[in-house]
Amino acid sequence: MRLEQPRIPPLEPEQWDADVSRIMEPFVAAGSDHNVFRTIANHPDLMRRWLVFANHVLFKSTLPPRERELVILRIGFLCGAEYEWAQHRIIGLQTGLDEAAIESTRRGPSTPDLNELDRLLLTATDELHEDAFISEPTWTALSGHLDTRQLMDLVFAVGQYNLVSMALNTFGVQLDPGLRGWED
């Protein structure tokens, strides 16, 4: 973790007013009232609006879940967002990523034995992170695997989790109990 203590502490349930309680209700019901949500709950208006976009990227995207998680893990790693990477490692395993694929998100597109699509997704993520642009060769090759909407969702997934990684790092969101960080 970049910070050993949060700069913006997550709100404890006894600190929630009626507005925050309404926002947090589905997370509590799902057992996912994680530090990320309890931290962003410090700004309920922001959280409410951000959740609309985050919901699209995570649950309504045309990018298949396995591929989505591969790029989310890669951008989290590139941004040094241990919380993001640890949280999405679990989600990635649930969507069909195996330990080798998860390790490839740390090693990058030069990881041996990657299939073509995984290599292209990691390359596109690296290019977006480095230059805010997917190169023509990568775009053309990805177009052989993904349709227009999937390509758009790919860019927005990387962008969304780049933003989330910046927030997590800057706010000092700490690992939730049971999460495995970089060294575990």
Mean pLDDT over the full residue set: 96
For the record, what CATH class of the largest domain applies? Answer: Mainly Alpha
Question: Beta-strand level of the residues, as a percent range?
Answer: under 5%
Low-confidence stretches: none
Q: In DSSP terms, counting alpha (H) and pi (I) runs of 4 or more, how many helices?
A: 9
Distance N terminus to C terminus?
Answer: 13 Å
Report the sheet with the most strands, covering strand number, pairing sense and barrel closure. none
Oligomer: single chain
Total tally of structural domains: 2
Per the principal axes of the C-alpha atoms, what is the gross shape?
A: globular
Task: Could you tell me the CATH topology label of the largest domain.
Answer: AhpD-like
Radius of gyration computed on alpha carbons: 17 Å
Describe the structure.
With 184 residues, the protein is an all-alpha fold. It has two domains: 13-59, no CATH class; 62-170, AhpD-like, CATH 1.20.1290.10. The protein has nine helices and no strands. It has helices at residues 18-29, 35-40, 44-60, 65-78, 82-94, 99-107, 116-131, 136-143, 148-171. Helix 4 (65-78) crosses helix 7. The longest helix has 24 residues, at 148-171. The model has no long low-confidence stretch (mean pLDDT 96).
How does the SSE layout of this entry go?
Elements: H1 18-29, H2 35-40, H3 44-60, H4 65-78, H5 82-94, H6 99-107, H7 116-131, H8 136-143, H9 148-171
TL;DR of this structure?
This protein has 184 residues and is mostly helical.
